[in-house]
Amino acid sequence: MTKYQKQDISLTAAQQLPLPNFPKVKYASWHLDQLMPVQKAISNAHFLTAEDVGIEILGTQAGHQYLPQELINAGVLVMSIQAAKKDYPQLVQRYLSSVIPADQDRLSAQNLLQYNAGIFVYIPDNVVIQSLLQLVLVQNATTTGDAVQRILIYVGKNAQCTILQQLRTMGEATIKSSTVIEVFLDAGANVQYSAIDALSANTSGYLNRSALLADNAQLNWAQAEFNRGNMVMHLDTMLSGQGAQTHANVMAMVSQKQVQGINTRVSNRGRHTIGHILQRGVILDHAALVFNGVGNIIKGAKGADAQQESRILMLSKKARGDANPLLLIDESDVTAGHAASVGRMNAAQLYYLMSRGLCEKVARRLVIRGFMGPILAQIPHQVVRESIIEDIERQLKDAHQ
Amino acid sequence: MTTLEVKDLHVAIDNQEILKGVNLVMKTGEVHAIMGPNGTGKSTLSQVIMGHPAYRITSGEIYFDGQNLADMAVDARARAGLFLAMQYPAEIQGVTNIEFMRAAINARRPEDDPISVMDFIKKLDEKSAILSMPEEMSARYLNEGFSGGEKKRNEILQLLMIEPKIAILDEIDSGLDIDALKVVARGVNEMKSPDFGVLMITHYQRLLDYIVPDFVHVMMDGRIVKTGGPQLAKKLEAEGYAGLRDELGLDIVLTDENVDAGL
């Protein structure tokens, strides 16, 4: 089923593993490998309401959970990961660590050993989910205690769905966060996966979102990073089967003194696989943002295509930004390309908007949104686009522009 | 009544003088056209009046209702009643036309009294119909993926929505086929009133068949060299700019001179 061998690992062994590498980001002093996983439940759902299909986990408890009867009948499972371990232990066992090997690095291994909350999604073969499937993890920072969470998603052969996954914080306590998400797409599966990550300024964390794609599977990511604290993040897609495709779209906005490092990697393993990375980052105030884009074509992946484009917009003199494209190619019969830039506000757009009477502040906000436009345009659901625009506006209002 | 007055205006870009003493007075209720060969500073004049940051006024002034525009930022000029339909409007993905136009209208209203959604949509439908613009165009991202003709229409739609006192139309006719030109002209003519003045910048007399000017100014080498009525445009069409230059005895080399000789 998969080339990756599952392993059991002890906490002692996990501590010996190397920290994941985020080039140009120094994060050892954040001590993300020293976690005290304590999360209390919060009683009411905050982000999902009665008609929303999906699940919201608050702290460790499901606050909202709803699946229409026809999906239940079709065998779809959407539940807390603890409930899944109890009710469907074999399914969980089969897919856990199937995308991220247990001994890959210290932070993902610790997550595997210490997670105490999360979501399990199982979509059987040939099931097409029309409604937006929402997965929300709310980290409880009303008291201290770190959030260690895991999401495991299996999408069966030729199954289809659109997912909106959110990561949010309630409360202002200083906590650490470790979130690992494994997505397994079986042959011919097709998934639109939008993610909004908006953790609090007092949360520093590690986020690993990884997917494995079998033959002809297709996964379109749109990942919006609105975290206010220090974060290191992996978005990793392995195109294992032939003809598998991914578009990894990432937008990030950083402000005040925060540091974010984002590794976006696509590995073309199968023949005729297509991996495109598109990233947009906006830096305000004193913040720092590093995009490391990696296109990795493995020997034998004939006819593979690896493209990437990363652009960073710096809105203050004290901002620090870096866009590092990397192509690792071990096969000759392939196409690949990259573009990267770090620049300032588009003066022509700003002038155009102001020439219609918009004051500079409003015009700047719209130009910034325009910079994110290529990513927004990749997001299929209007509800999701609007939700992301709200987050952009909120962050811009709060920044010391 | 609103007056736009350009007084002995000299403008440079990258230390090269482009406008060499332009004088012009126009009022609401009037239709002016500026014609002239390529590279004589027509677009520069329009951008300087609007306040484009790339151009530097080296001497002279521009007054809008007696107020020196040098003291006003671009957005303040717009809110005072100036409008520039641009030759190359910017494209902004992620910002819809609707949202942009609402923001532009609300920028002219008190912060606590934005235009109601109903009023806005009603006005938008009305103005879009004048320009034969399909409804879905306003839901698209600002100018993004628009054809040349669609961009021009969208500029005129903004003009109709914003209702400025004085509008400058910079080559609004370029790249338009005759049907699209008629539609754009219909939009501009719709605005005509004692409270609205328009300054059209064009190479061709054709536009002036559809939007008839009260005054035609000819610009050459950074100056207005002749002003007349609509018949001046017809004369230019017949004799070319070189003919007028020779008649006025000006010592200017036109960018595209001798084109005929070369054929």
TrEMBL record, chain A:
Matching entries from InterPro entries are given as: Fe-S_cluster_assembly_SufBD, SUF_FeS_clus_asmbl_SufBD_core, SUF_FeS_clus_asmbl_SufBD_sf, SUF_FeS_clus_asmbl_SufD, SufBD_N
Q: Where is the SUF system FeS cluster assembly SufBD N-terminal domain?
A: 67-135
In terms of superkingdom, the source organism counts as: Bacteria
Supply one GO BP term: iron-sulfur cluster assembly
User: Pfam families recorded for this chain?
Assistant: SUFBD_core, SufBD_N
The residue range of the signal peptide is: none
Q: Outline the extent of the SUF system FeS cluster assembly SufBD core domain.
A: 145-371
Instruction: Fetch the PANTHER family from UniProt.
Output: PROTEIN ABCI7, CHLOROPLASTIC (PTHR43575)
Instruction: Give the NCBIfam families listed for this entry.
Output: sufD
Q: What is this protein called?
A: Fe-S cluster assembly protein SufD
Q: Which organism is it from?
A: Leuconostoc fallax
Upper classification of the source organism reads:
Bacteria, Bacillati, Bacillota, Bacilli, Lactobacillales
From TrEMBL, chain B:
Any one Gene Ontology MF annotation carried by this entry is:
ATP binding
Annotated InterPro entries: AAA+_ATPase (IPR003593), ABC_transporter-like_ATP-bd (IPR003439), ABC_transporter-like_CS (IPR017871), FeS-cluster_ATPase_SufC (IPR010230), P-loop_NTPase (IPR027417)
Similarity-based family? Belongs to the ABC transporter superfamily. Ycf16 family.
Domain of life of the source: Bacteria
Q: Which residues form the ABC transporter domain?
A: 4-246
Please identify the protein, giving its name as recorded.
ABC transporter domain-containing protein
* Keyword terms: ATP-binding, Nucleotide-binding
